[in-house]
Each structure stands twice: as C-alpha cells, then as structure tokens.
C-alpha cells in the first residue's frame, strides 16, 4: 500500500458537532515507557506478545448516544490511514454464530489479521476502526468491554469510532471519518477502507477512500467484479424539472397594474414529509410578500395553529397565511378549509367593509420518502442550524417521523375545497461543492428498505461519477 498524494479536496466538516466535552478518563492514554535493558534480545513490534490493555473509552461525540470513541496506546497523527470495520472484517463470534453471546465471544476472522495490522503500524499507518453499533444496552456493554480486549490482543496504537444510534455518525454517513480526520488526525486524509458490506463501501465513497474487501487485503485475493449498490441513489434525482406545476396560475397572486386592488387574503396549506424544504420554500417565496408563517413545531398544537390562522385573517387589514406543517391527511387539511369558509373576512375601504372571499390553496411537496430521509442526514451533517432561526441544532429525525407521514398520507385533491393545487418538485440549491456533498450516500443511516423496487447502481459507475478521485465503496 503506497502513500497516495494528500492533495485531494476534502469534505468540509465545519458544521458537524464534534464536541468531546463530557467526562474524560482520569488519565488519558500515554505512550508505553521503555523497559530497562535486561540483556535479552528485544523483539520487533511485529512479534511482540500482547501487552496489557492501555485503552479507554472517552466521552461520546455528538449529542444523545452519539458516537463512541476508544483510544489505545496514544496513536500519532499520520498521512497514511488504514481504516477497518470490525465485525465480519477483523473478528467474528466463535463457531458459526451470527451474533456474539457475550463480551468474550469473539475470534480473529483470519490468522493474517494481527500480523497484517502490526505490519501496517510498523510501516507508519494509523489504524482506525469505524463501526455501526446501534445495540441494546446489554449488547452495547458487551461491545464496550470487548474492544479493550481486541486492542490488547492486537497491541498497536489505534482508535475506534462506533455509531451508537441511527444518527449522522452512522455509516455510510461520513461524520465518523470527518471527526477523526479533523479533530484527531490534524486534518490529514489519506487512507483505505477494508470491509465487505454495501454500507461500508458507500462509507468509503463518501470519505473519498479507496476500498478493499477483507479477502483482498488479508488473503491477497483479486478484486471482485463490480457489484451493485442497493438503496436510493441521490445522483438519480432529476433537478431539471420545473420547480412547481402547473405553472399557471402563478405561485403567488399578483396585480396586473398599479391601478388594481391588492389581491384578497389567502391561506396556503403545505403538504409534505419532513426534510423536503417546506420552510425554506416559505422563506424564499412567501415571507417576502408578508405572509404569516404558521408552524406546529413552533406553536406545539394544531389548535394553536388554527387560532393563529383565525387571528391573521380577522386582523385589520387581514393577512395571508402559510400553514407549514406536514398535513398528510385530508381530515387535517379539512379543519383549515372549514375554518376559512366559516369566517367573514372584512375587505378594505368603505365605512362598512364588505366581506371578501378568502382563497384556500394547497402546495404539495412531491419528494419521495427516501429523499426526505437523505435530506435529514445531510442537514445534520452540513446545515446544522435549524431553518426556523431558533438557533436549535438540527438532528437526524427519527424514522418514525417519516413512516408516520407515509402511513397517514392522502395525496391532496382539488375537490377537498381548494381553489388551486400545485405540486412542488425538490431542487437542490447550493454551490457545486455543496451538491457534491448532497450526492453522498446518506439515507442508508436509517436502514429503511422500501417495499419493492429499490434502485441499484454499479459500483464502478458510482466511483467514476465521483469525479475521478480514488473512491471505493463497501
């Protein structure tokens, strides 16, 4: 494994929460102290017997369960990185078991693992392990007790990053790699990932790493033929379609001339899953025109949202409103339609203002559920501040938020009482660098499997589409 050029453009981790401020071990790992010369011949590190464990688990990265971080023997920064998954790549349960039965139920997957990794260390490589471990409390405790034993048997400096939840740290999302690269490796970024699964191959692609299977690396077997990726590929999304349809009438009412009256007030009901840009769409198109923003995340209850709509329409002068909620069911939307039809909204001018009809329109965001989940991870990684301006940090939304929307969704229709219905198509807005990050494999964090037709792409084509850098996937 030669040393590649370190000049590749790296993914920006500036917005990722990589804080490590929790309780720390009483003593951080220190380099081993040389033993006095006893006159005996010293063994090279490659042949040295296992040393007592000097590893420790440090405070989790991120919020909640976040990402576990284990360090053994004070690994030094290096421009050469050898990154590995753990289960099925370095170790496995004894016998033919699929899952371990205790913290001691493990063995090396091959007799070549230890000498190969010790040789990598002797050649100047930093050894880093990245693993997904969203486990029950019992199995998580087994895992956290097992890793020091693995480190002791391996007897080389190493770091372990373990995603303990379905969050932005979970592979294939690159947050664990970015945390290592920027916080613990001084921004150095050359490496190769060894594993065998689709998730880790995508992780390697996201991190810009060449990829090898355990069979290739440990057993010197030839590379596999190109394999297929399962799951939703963000590069297949069509950004060229019109932003909304139909294009007529226009998205916002407008006066034909300066002599026309102002358009009457209206209520616009958004329908769409979380994470597809509804609030951004409001800020871009409706906020500049003075529309009142009604959002249940802010107001907490639907009754509070209905009351906010009533206040806006009965104000003097009345104000137009956007209801920025998911509103998946026809019954929820009907509450707003019925409210508007029940009000006498005063018009402008005259001693006794004449009530004016209030239009009710629906804007349906058509993005598929997989895109919404993908966006949830992307935002937690690269757009950490909540779009509402509250200063709250974005987190990966729970899978239940998306599945709940899907289970209740009744696609909106004009005959629900709407005066107009528009379909909005998701179009990513950002710089080429931001689009490249958006094209990463991220939605797999949820482990969601669509009922049937899953899009697949060939790994070789995916690597070529990444722009010619050394990218692989696992």
From TrEMBL:
<dbReference type="GO" id="GO:0006281">
    <property type="term" value="P:DNA repair"/>
</dbReference>
<dbReference type="InterPro" id="IPR023214">
    <property type="entry name" value="HAD_sf"/>
</dbReference>
<feature type="compositionally biased region" description="Basic residues">
    <location>
        <begin position="1"/>
        <end position="11"/>
    </location>
</feature>
<dbReference type="InterPro" id="IPR036412">
    <property type="entry name" value="HAD-like_sf"/>
</dbReference>
<dbReference type="Pfam" id="PF13671">
    <property type="entry name" value="AAA_33"/>
</dbReference>
<feature type="region of interest" description="Disordered">
    <location>
        <begin position="1"/>
        <end position="49"/>
    </location>
</feature>
<dbReference type="InterPro" id="IPR006549">
    <property type="entry name" value="HAD-SF_hydro_IIIA"/>
</dbReference>
<dbReference type="Pfam" id="PF08645">
    <property type="entry name" value="PNK3P"/>
</dbReference>
<dbReference type="GO" id="GO:0046403">
    <property type="term" value="F:polynucleotide 3'-phosphatase activity"/>
</dbReference>
<dbReference type="GO" id="GO:0003690">
    <property type="term" value="F:double-stranded DNA binding"/>
</dbReference>
<protein>
    <recommendedName>
        <fullName>Polynucleotide kinase 3'-phosphatase</fullName>
    </recommendedName>
</protein>
<dbReference type="InterPro" id="IPR027417">
    <property type="entry name" value="P-loop_NTPase"/>
</dbReference>
<dbReference type="InterPro" id="IPR013954">
    <property type="entry name" value="PNK3P"/>
</dbReference>
<dbReference type="GO" id="GO:0046404">
    <property type="term" value="F:ATP-dependent polydeoxyribonucleotide 5'-hydroxyl-kinase activity"/>
</dbReference>
